[in-house]
Specification:
The protein is of the alpha+beta class and about 280 residues long. The chain is built from nine helices and nine strands. A hairpin with an 8-residue loop joins β4 and β5. The longest helix has 22 residues. The radius of gyration is 23 Å and the shape is elongated. The termini are far apart.
Length: about 280
């Protein structure tokens, strides 16, 4: 279902003496408040889409759960150029900053045990790649930036913003460090910049069943070496009975499969090369 800000709301606000950007923002807030009441009556809004005051499509879902993938062929040349300019600025930021420097000087987000958002000590709003609202850091690597606005300027048809609270019309946009325009604006990294990782995991997982004991030991040793202390050893349990699985082999398969959720793309490619050549 697609939701739109009620244009008449902003008109009425202007007639009441509220004008310009303030009218648009307040109109968006009123419209979102109405949506919140509707959402409560219909069991929530996860995955639903609305149109913000500046025409941006905004998902009421966390980027990690988004299914949106830009369709570049449907975008106008002007929208592709606008998105490319923004991505060029983000990639420039990623080239000139490091995860170590940002984590040392920018404020971590609420998830203090494993933060992915580090907030700019000099808060900025809007689309300023040189000074984003936050840096996105995953597993110690700078992966992108986040912009916020109330609302954001017009993004065109390619970027997809998100919001966490329909009563507060704050639009947020993740843009990831990559030269691939589609992947940069795919909110869910596993469908975009990390899609190759997902494909590798899906290849390796079933192939492990065909490995011999010697091959399993070799692949497990490599996985342990690559993952370090992030991978906990799996201890065999039980004894082999009849035609059931061998506990020792099953433990090695389980440990290798668990490592797939830890290893980076280059590391997964190394494991896949071993499995494929076995």
């Amino acid at each position: 279902m697609l939701f739109r800000t009620v244009e008449g709301t902003s008109v009425g606000l202007k007639n009441a003496g509220v004008s310009g950007t303030a009218a648009l923002v307040l109109a968006g807030s009123l419209s979102l408040s109405g949506l919140a009441a509707s959402a409560q009556a219909h069991g929530g809004m996860d995955g639903h889409l609305m149109t913000g005051p500046t025409g941006n499509k905004v998902e009421m879902v966390d980027p990690a759960h988004s299914s949106y993938v830009p369709k570049l062929a449907r975008a106008s040349a002007a929208d592709r150029a606008k998105a490319q300019r923004l991505l060029n600025g983000v990639n420039r930021f990623c080239r000139t900053h490091s995860a170590a420097g940002l984590t040392a000087n920018w404020r971590p987000g609420r998830n203090l045990s494993s933060p992915t958002h580090y907030f700019n000590p000099r808060p900025s709003r809007g689309l300023r790649p040189a000074s984003p609202r936050a840096a996105l850091i995953y597993h110690g690597e700078l992966g992108g930036v986040m912009f916020t606005g109330v609302p954001l300027p017009s993004l065109g048809s390619i970027p997809r913003a998100h919001s966490h609270d329909m009563s507060r019309p704050i639009e947020m946009l993740h843009v990831y460090c990559t030269r691939n325009l589609k992947d940069a604006f795919t909110p869910n990294r596993m469908l975009g910049v990390k899609a190759d990782i997902r494909a590798l995991r899906l290849r390796i997982r079933p192939a492990v069943m065909d490995l011999s004991e010697a091959q399993l030991r070799a692949v497990r040793a490599t996985a342990r070496d690559l993952a370090g202390n992030r991978l906990r050893p799996v201890t065999p349990t039980g004894t082999a009975a009849g035609s059931g699985p061998d506990p020792v082999l099953q433990a090695m398969r389980t440990e290798i499969r668990r490592s797939l959720m830890i290893l980076s793309e280059p590391q997964l490619r190394r494991v896949w090369s071993m499995v494929r050549s076995a």
